[in-house]
Write a structure and sequence with these properties.
Blueprint (H helix, E strand, L loop, with lengths): L13 H25 L5 E5 L5 E5 L3 H9 L13 H32 L9 H102 L1
Antiparallel strand pairs: 1-2
Keywords: Differentiation, DNA-binding, Flowering, Nucleus, Transcription, Transcription regulation
GO molecular function: DNA-binding transcription factor activity; protein dimerization activity; RNA polymerase II transcription regulatory region sequence-specific DNA binding
Subcellular location: Nucleus
């Protein structure tokens, strides 16, 4: 059965979009690192999120690889010295990159102030919605971490409970064996007492039976005197 084709389109849910971006970004950076190591290649990646946050990766330096990229041209592909126009492009790129980075730092600082409640009121609907999405993503992370810790704690308690139940069962078996051994000893002592009592009773009975014989003998010896 043929697999259904997955349509690539924008993820509308902000939290799901943030999670997908984080996973794909890590995967992309990992592939870039593997490519640079396995093939001895110089790799540079620059990513800006929809909110304007910057992510970059390079096995050397992003600016260094960009310089090498701008130094190449179709007409001077083998030239080692960049042309004046290329140098100008590099300078403009560096200035633009520096300006963008400065703007991003200022924006991130503003975002932190907004999250901490230190930003003055008067935000637009779009800014409030963006702030809500960031707070929701942060809350989801907190809930996820809390759930992981609670699950780990529950598993530890279950393990300890099973261990205590096993120890209690072993202790119960030991106590049962001790009581069984004491019961056997009591039965042996009782049997000995009954045997001794029976022997003594037999001796007394024999003595009692012999006494009438002696009396009869005395009576028989005394009969001729009475006659």
């Amino acid at each position: 059965m043929a697999r259904e084709k997955i349509h690539i389109r924008k993820i509308e849910n902000a939290t799901a979009r943030h999670v997908t971006f984080s996973k794909r970004r890590r995967g992309l950076f990992k592939k870039a690192e593997e490519l640079s190591v396995l093939c001895d290649a110089d790799v540079a990646l620059i990513i800006f999120t929809s909110a304007g946050k910057l992510f970059e990766f390079s096995n050397l330096s992003v600016s260094e690889i960009l310089k090498r990229y701008l130094s190449l041209s179709k007409n001077l592909e083998k030239s080692e010295e960049p042309s004046s126009s290329q140098m100008l492009q590099m300078q403009l790129l560096e200035r633009g990159t520096h300006s963008k980075l400065t703007e991003k730092v200022a924006e991130e600082s503003k975002n932190l102030r907004q999250i901490g409640g230190k930003e003055p009121p008067g935000l637009t609907i779009e800014e409030l919605q963006n702030l809500e999405e960031r707070l929701e993503a942060a809350l989801n992370k907190v809930i996820e971490k809390k759930t992981e810790k609670n699950t780990r704690l529950i598993n530890d308690l279950k393990q300890k409970g099973m261990q205590m139940a096993l120890e209690n069962e072993i202790l119960r078996q030991q106590v049962t064996r001790i009581y069984d051994m004491k019961g056997v000893a009591v039965l042996k002592d009782t049997s000995k007492g009954q045997t001794s009592g029976s022997t003594a009773d037999g001796c007394n009975s024999s003595s009692f039976l012999q006494e009438p014989d002696s009396s009869d003998t005395s009576l028989k010896l005394g009969l001729p005197w009475n006659v």
